[in-house]
């Protein structure tokens, strides 16, 4: 049976133009085939900002006179002689990603990896240079009008009226949908009922996050993009958000979230995609990604100085083990019920109480560090 995809990204490429350090040009995205901006210093392009002091009573600009006099020897100074070098940075470099309908997919990556750019392209906020993007089977830009009532978007910042009250904002967004959720119930669900009459700018950071989440889901979307949904939330706020995301999945809504919280990804995500340097470097279920590496290791604590060589004689061929640090033992091999029984039987036969017996498994954080070489911030 063919899996139904809510989001399909194939060989996505996006490049942006970045000015050199100390330059006056802010980083901006470069469309494929777009002409270069006009050459010349900013003063030539922004004539309205030029001001010339010509009044007779103006004090002499001695520093300016010295500059205009030029260097010793009469050679004219040319401050704009060095050309401005602009670099093109590929934020997304052939990225491919699939999101199954009705699933929760977590997109992880260090800062600058390209995950935010990818999500913004899927949301229809940016155009790709090349590659294919399909959201609910449609093109995010050409079919934006058809997608708008079907897709919810939670942004980290922006999209709010600072002076509008929380309840007003939520009802306003709901009024643009055919069958919105009840705004009052949603406010209560996310712990915002008591601040429904408070202007957005006076809400705490966590309250603003929860309101942004409510605005993303009030229209009963088929697909929702959540950017750091629990950033800045307290423990109760995180729990409420997690429960709402799990309820969305149970109701058949597809959720794509970016997060820096590994425990969040491990708890919520059906699929995890790790992005680094513009590409997906690993994808799968949390169990698939954490399988391997430390799997096959059995650890336990016991009195220091046990004869490990005698223990290994009682275990299947190919099993290795050692004590490090004193009192901490590691057995490495095929960890199955038979190995576990053999270790505990040997300990019992030698009057040893094995404590804290556990099978080691890598965490998502271990996998992330191995693939990207950096920690999530």
Report on this structure:
This protein is α/β, with parallel strands linked by helices. Helices cover 29% and strands 23% of the residues. The protein has helices at residues 42-45, 62-69, 115-123, 144-147, 166-175, 183-189, 205-217, 235-250, 262-268, 286-290, 308-313, 337-349, 364-372; strands at 5-18, 28-29, 87-100, 104-108, 130-135, 151-154, 223-227, 254-258, 271-276, 279-284, 297-301, 320-323, 328-332, 355-360. A six-stranded mixed β-sheet has the order 6-7-8-4-9-10, sandwiched between helices. Strands 1, 2, 3 and 5 form a four-stranded antiparallel β-sheet that branches. A hairpin with a 2-residue loop joins strand 9 and strand 10 (279-284). The protein starts with a strand and ends in a 5-residue tail after the last helix. The model is unreliable at 25-34 and 39-77 (pLDDT under 50).
């Amino acid at each position: 049976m063919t899996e139904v995809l809510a989001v399909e990204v194939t060989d996505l490429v996006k490049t942006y133009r970045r000015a050199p350090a100390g330059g006056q040009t802010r980083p901006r995205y470069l469309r494929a085939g777009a002409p270069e901006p006009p050459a010349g210093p900013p003063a030539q392009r922004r004539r309205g900002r030029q001001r010339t002091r010509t009044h007779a009573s103006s004090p002499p600009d001695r520093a300016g006179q010295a500059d205009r006099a030029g260097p010793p020897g009469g050679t004219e100074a040319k401050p704009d002689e060095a050309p401005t070098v602009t670099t093109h940075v590929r934020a997304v470099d052939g990225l491919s990603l699939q999101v199954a309908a009705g699933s929760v997919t977590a997109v992880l990556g260090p800062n600058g990896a390209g995950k935010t750019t990818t999500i913004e392209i899927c949301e229809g906020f940016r155009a790709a240079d090349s590659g294919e993007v399909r959201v609910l089977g449609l093109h995010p830009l050409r079919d934006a009008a058809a997608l708008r009532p079907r897709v919810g978007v939670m942004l980290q910042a922006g999209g709010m009226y600072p002076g509008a009250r929380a309840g007003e904002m939520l009802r306003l967004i709901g009024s643009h949908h055919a069958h919105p959720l009840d705004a009052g119930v949603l406010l209560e669900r996310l712990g915002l009922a008591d601040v429904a009459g408070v202007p957005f700018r006076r809400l705490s950071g966590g309250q603003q996050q929860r309101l942004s989440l409510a605005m993303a889901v009030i229209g009963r979307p088929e697909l929702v993009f959540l950017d750091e949904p629990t950033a800045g939330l307290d423990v109760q706020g995180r729990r409420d958000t997690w429960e709402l995301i799990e309820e969305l999945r149970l109701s058949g809504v597809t959720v794509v979230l970016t997060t820096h919280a590994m425990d969040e990804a491990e708890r919520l995500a059906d699929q995890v995609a790790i992005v680094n340097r513009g590409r997906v470097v690993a994808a799968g279920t949390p169990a698939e990604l954490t399988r391997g590496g430390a799997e096959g290791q059995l650890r336990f604590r016991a009195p220091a100085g046990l004869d490990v060589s005698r223990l290994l004689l009682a275990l299947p061929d190919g099993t290795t083990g050692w004590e490090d640090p004193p009192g901490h033992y590691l057995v490495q091999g095929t960890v199955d019920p038979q190995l576990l029984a053999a270790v505990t039987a040997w300990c019992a036969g030698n009057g040893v109480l094995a404590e804290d017996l556990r099978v080691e498994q890598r965490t998502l954080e271990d996998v992330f560090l191995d693939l990207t070489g950096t920690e999530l911030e």
